[in-house]
Amino acid sequence: MALHSNYKILETFFLSFIPLFVAMEPIGVIPVYLSLTRPMPAGEKRAVLFYSLVTATLITLAFLALGKAVFVALGITVSDFQIAGGLVLLSIAVSDIVHTARGETEIRPTAGVGIVPIGTPLIAGPAALTTIIMLNDLYGLVFTAAALAVNLFIVWIAFIWSEQIVRYIGENGARGISKVVSLLLAAIAVMMIRRGLEGLLL
């Protein structure tokens, strides 16, 4: 009985973790992070990393805590948001697949790159925020918060080892992985739209 319970907990955690990992795509963000921080000294890079993670954490936690309240205030049902969120995710995924990969345009680094654009919208972007709302409804606050914490930790590790990762797989390889991740994100978007339509029709 205990083994079945533990399996169920792990299964629910991974069902929460995987969509958020796909939405945040830490590997796909690495080329952008490197292009913004490459000219910086080591100390400034550490500061950018710190501020980017703090920004992403605060935004995602705020969205996790207040998302439902916003729904109630605006009279939005979960099915409404599933359809709208699915359409948003689908447009993001299709845009990333079809158009130029993120990070190809050179961006001049500024003091605030840790907050914008790295903290948001690169880490805590529309895809991640939409996914958090969906996961909270499907699996609850505890599992969603745990999945968020693990994903933010993975982003931290990915950024710390970003230069080594890109040397190993190459920048084109990182962008290629980003395209595959975008395809998975498109599939999740279709799933959200389907569930939203089922909720409205049933």
Describe the protein.
With 202 residues, the chain is an all-alpha fold. The protein has one domain (33-201). It has helices at residues 2-24, 26-37, 42-74, 78-98, 114-123, 126-139, 141-160, 162-169, 171-201. Helix 3 (42-74) packs across helix 6 (126-139), helix 3 runs antiparallel to helix 7 and helix 4 (78-98) packs antiparallel against helix 9. Mean pLDDT is 80; it is low at 100-107.
Give the N-to-C terminal Cα separation.
34 Å
Mean pLDDT: 80
Main beta-sheet annotation: none
Strand content: under 5%
Choose one word for the global shape. Answer: globular
User: How many helical elements?
Assistant: 9
Write a concise synopsis of the structure shown.
By secondary structure, the chain is an all-alpha fold. It contains nine helices and no strands.
Feature tags:
single chain; 202 residues; mainly alpha; 9 helices; 85% helix; 0% strand; globular
Topology overview:
Elements: H1 2-24, H2 26-37, H3 42-74, H4 78-98, H5 114-123, H6 126-139, H7 141-160, H8 162-169, H9 171-201
Helix pairs in contact: 1-6, 1-7, 2-7, 2-9, 3-5, 3-6, 3-7, 4-6, 4-9, 6-7
